Amino acid sequence: MMRPQCSVLDLRGLNIVAVLGVGILATHCRHLLETRRPDAASPAPPAVLSFHAVHLGWNVALFPVLFFFSGLYYTDVVSALSVLAAYYHHLRRVREEASSLLSDWTVVVAGVLALLMRQTNVFWVVVYMGGLEAVAAVKALRPEPVARPTMTTMGEYVRFYAWRYSVGDVHDPPLNTAWPDDLFFSILSIGIAALANPLRVLKKVYPHITVMALFAGFVAWNGGVVLGDKSNHVATLHLAQMLYIWPLFAFFSFPLFLPSAVGLLRFLRGAFGAASGKNAPSRLAEPSPSTPSRKHTLPGSSQTGSSKKQKIRAQEDEPGRQVADAPAASPFVNALQTLISSKLYHLLLTPTLVALTFAVVRFNTIIHPFTLADNRHYMFYVFRYTIRRPGLFRYYLVVPYTLARWLCWDTLGGCGQGGLLSDHTGDCSGRYTASRPGPFENSPFGSPAQRARAEKPPATEPLEEEALEQPARSGDDTADDDGNDSKAAKAAKARHDPFAIVTLADPASQTTEPPASSTAVLLLLATALSLVTAPLVEPRYFILPWIFWRILVPAWRLHGHGHAAAAHPALARLERLPVLGSLARFGKRFDVRLILETLWFVLVNVVTMYIFLAKPYLWRSEDGRILDNGRMQRFMW
């Protein structure tokens, strides 16, 4: 109950309520992501909250930087709550091809409220969510499929794919199958589709444009973005922020890196085995597109679609049409095909990224005066013992920057992405691989398997309220016909049981699905825009980037690699043990990383709160005089 006069306790109590709201909204945002159908043949996902979504939501609320400031009166917690509320509304909007006027103006109101909390939220409510709206608008197009013609010149490739992209046949694979060239073609194809369908895109994003216009008007009226001390908050190009973010993510989220660590150990074991002449365990080779296996066939895929699609696929798979009769492609096309399909460009891309990292460290390391002056904050000591150390120490940090960046990106893509460090099995994240293409794969230089891609999901998916009514109606119809509910109707009702526990073992669960390539690119763009304009390095600035990254990280189940349908020998032995066997079986149904993450967050929170409460100190000048009127200072984020 509020006192007659607002007290410090009341103000801090507001943040306690807000952090609970952040956890609840994170749960429901994750739930909306999990209940999107990846293709037309996938079964309807459970309408109730998964155990993973609930646990993830409370881990987000326990995120140490966010949780710490929930006990103080800082705007960061309410700011995160307002942005998540806008994100929750966005996730409901993109489930419908056409949105109502009320929904559009809710976007404007939610965006303005988020900007009132923190001005840099404009990058999340306009760039990130507005970009996702534009992507959803072009992906909702349903162009008629066509057979890919024989092309020999670069001009023919450009004309054909520019046309296909303009009608909405875009390239946007899930992140677990995406390479850098896929990210490029994803951006290119969606950009072409948006330019070719401006009215369709504008109809979805005009609320975000309205928010941006209001923000621009505020900046013009205020003379800047900042409401308070403008002199110490001048927008500055600070590219080093995009280096600091990855070690921060790695420190807080290292339990999530377990699959990446397992993949790295497996790769090193195979490499040492090959170097020593020993036969390393054979990796599970995925079936080629010409010889699909039962395990890698999507049930009810687009092969059961319309007769026109079947005819086109039959033409593409016709055995007589092989390269023997096709005209030879130009040398430039052949060279480009080889470069992209073999991923040889990584030999240039990786050193280039490392060189750019060195350049940023050398020319764009900015140390704000506040960082040097305020020894209450942990960042003061981080800079003191790392970046500000004499000599070449700051250049040595390029190694942890690079490693942490790879771990964060690898974790976002999920387990079993293929390539050097991991081989995909049926239990890995994502249902699509190079030989099982998803519905939004259309790269000019992609695998021939992408011609047999899955059929696109419906442009409009029912929300939970509508889905809850459907099983009841189907059950009533069955009762009228047969006198009792069928097993199918009972199963449908069970999927909406509010007391059901949806685990990773549920065959209809989409919990392990990674995000689309465009989503990852937009997340990176919004993160960069929100950070590189800030000269001051503050852990609070990384709260929203971490929350959005964490919500998108797919779930992981305990499983083996490279042994086909059989269990990994080590995992099979583990399951036979009394206690560890129960834990292993638990890990097949629940993401054990969340438990480790919870324990780590609790430990960090206990330590930081203990230091804050039990280790106060006085500010003193160099000559020993007590400063700040003798007020006790406390360590904090």
From TrEMBL:
Its main location: endoplasmic reticulum. GO terms for cellular component: endoplasmic reticulum membrane. GO terms for biological process: dolichol-linked oligosaccharide biosynthetic process. Residues 276-324, 432-492 are annotated as: Disordered. Its EC number is 2.4.1.256. Signal peptide: none annotated. It holds the Pfam family DIE2_ALG10. GO terms for molecular function: dolichyl pyrophosphate Glc2Man9GlcNAc2 alpha-1,2-glucosyltransferase activity. Keywords: Endoplasmic reticulum, Glycosyltransferase, Membrane, Transferase, Transmembrane, Transmembrane helix. It is a multi-pass membrane protein. It catalyses: an alpha-D-Glc-(1->3)-alpha-D-Glc-(1->3)-alpha-D-Man-(1->2)-alpha-D-Man-(1->2)-alpha-D-Man-(1->3)-[alpha-D-Man-(1->2)-alpha-D-Man-(1->3)-[alpha-D-Man-(1->2)-alpha-D-Man-(1->6)]-alpha-D-Man-(1->6)]-beta-D-Man-(1->4)-beta-D-GlcNAc-(1->4)-alpha-D-GlcNAc-diphospho-di-trans,poly-cis-dolichol + a di-trans,poly-cis-dolichyl beta-D-glucosyl phosphate = a alpha-D-Glc-(1->2)-alpha-D-Glc-(1->3)-alpha-D-Glc-(1->3)-alpha-D-Man-(1->2)-alpha-D-Man-(1->2)-alpha-D-Man-(1->3)-[alpha-D-Man-(1->2)-alpha-D-Man-(1->3)-[alpha-D-Man-(1->2)-alpha-D-Man-(1->6)]-alpha-D-Man-(1->6)]-beta-D-Man-(1->4)-beta-D-GlcNAc-(1->4)-alpha-D-GlcNAc-diphospho-di-trans,poly-cis-dolichol + a di-trans,poly-cis-dolichyl phosphate + H(+). It is found in: Endoplasmic reticulum membrane. The chain crosses the membrane at residues 12-33, 61-88, 100-117, 205-224, 244-268, 344-363, 594-613. Pathway: Protein modification; protein glycosylation. Dol-P-Glc:Glc(2)Man(9)GlcNAc(2)-PP-Dol alpha-1,2-glucosyltransferase that operates in the biosynthetic pathway of dolichol-linked oligosaccharides, the glycan precursors employed in protein asparagine (N)-glycosylation. The assembly of dolichol-linked oligosaccharides begins on the cytosolic side of the endoplasmic reticulum membrane and finishes in its lumen. The sequential addition of sugars to dolichol pyrophosphate produces dolichol-linked oligosaccharides containing fourteen sugars, including two GlcNAcs, nine mannoses and three glucoses. Belongs to the ALG10 glucosyltransferase family. This is Dol-P-Glc:Glc(2)Man(9)GlcNAc(2)-PP-Dol alpha-1,2-glucosyltransferase. It comes from Colletotrichum tanaceti.
